Amino acid sequence: MLGEILDFSLAAILIWIAWRTMATPNLFNAVVLFIAFGLLMTLAWVRLHAPDIALAETAIGTGLTGALMLDAVAHITGKRGRRRAGRNPS
Amino acid sequence: MIGGGLIYAMAGVVLFALGFYGFIVHAHLVRKLIVFNIMGSGVFLVLVGLPQRVAGTPPDRVSEALVLTGIVVAVSATAFGLALVRRLYDLTGETRLPNDPRPEP
Amino acid sequence: MSAVYGPIRQIAAALAWILGIGLIAAIVSLSRPDFGLAQLVEAHLEQSGVRHPVTAVLLNYRGYDTLLEIAVLLLAVLGILAFRPPGPATIPDAATDSSPVLAALNRLIVPLIVLAAGYLLWAGAHRPGGAFQAGAVLAGGGVLLRLTGTIPSFESPNAWLRVCLVVGLGVFLAVAALPLFEGSRLLEYRTAEAAMAILVVESALTVSIAAILATAFIGAAPPRIRCLSPSRPAHSAEGERAGQS
Question: Which residues in chain A have their CB less than 8 angstroms from residue C155's CB?
Answer without folding.
Answer: none
